[in-house]
């Protein structure tokens, strides 16, 4: 019995290590793409270094909190929590895009949809990369 428990414990730790590696790669990739995309858009829309810096700091902090909240929500309930996380993320992205439109004096709906579309596109690419790494690490 003790040998079997040790083998199961070793397998569990190995699987947890692989899952953490996958989440790390996904998180870094997703955070970098969305932040670079956001800063590129803000930089193109304004020539203000201060706005670009504040946006970068805000994106870094909110991105980290968002990833942590999404991971927390997705863990216990699987699919429902993931859908709620996506819905909250999309609503937030639309709101930030509208706010960007206010700051840049661009059409609000267009700015919101553009911002959310670019960020969600980056998230989908990140998800695909995460799935690819997940197959290699776990399989």
Structure report:
By secondary structure, the chain is mainly α. The chain is 94% helix and 0% strand. It has helices spanning 2-45, 49-77, 79-104, 108-138. Helix 1 (2-45) packs antiparallel against helix 4 (108-138), helix 2 (49-77) packs antiparallel against helix 3 and helix 3 (79-104) runs antiparallel to helix 4. The two termini are 27 Å apart. 16% of the residues are buried. Residues 135-139 have low confidence and may be disordered.
Assign a percent range to the helix content. over 70%
Strand content is under 5%
Radius of gyration: 19 Å
Give the count of helical stretches: 4
Return the structural class.
mainly alpha
The number of distinct β-strands equals: 0
Uncertain regions spanning at least 5 consecutive residues = 135-139
Shape by Cα distribution = elongated
Biggest sheet layout:
none
- Helix-strand string: HHHH
Gap from first CA to last CA: 27 Å
Mean pLDDT: 75
What can be said about this structure in brief?
With 139 residues, the chain is mainly α. 94% of the residues lie in helices and 0% in strands. It is built from 4 helices and no strands.
What is the secondary structure topology, with strand pairs?
Layout: H1 2-45, H2 49-77, H3 79-104, H4 108-138
What are the key terms here?
single chain, 139 residues, mainly alpha, 94% helix, elongated, disordered C terminus
């Amino acid at each position: 019995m003790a040998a079997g428990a040790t083998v199961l414990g070793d397998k569990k730790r190995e699987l947890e290590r692989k899952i953490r590696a996958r989440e790390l790669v996904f998180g870094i990739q997703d955070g970098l793409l969305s932040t670079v995309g956001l800063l590129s858009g803000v930089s193109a829309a304004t020539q203000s270094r201060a706005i670009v810096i504040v946006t970068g700091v805000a994106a870094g902090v909110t991105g980290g909190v968002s990833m942590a909240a999404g991971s927390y929500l997705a863990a216990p309930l699987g699919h429902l929590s993931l859908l709620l996380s996506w819905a909250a993320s999309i609503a937030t992205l639309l709101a930030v895009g509208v706010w960007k439109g206010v700051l840049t004096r661009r059409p609000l709906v267009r700015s919101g949809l553009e911002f959310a579309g670019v960020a969600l596109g980056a998230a989908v690419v990140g998800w695909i990369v995460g799935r690819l790494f997940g197959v290699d690490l776990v399989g």
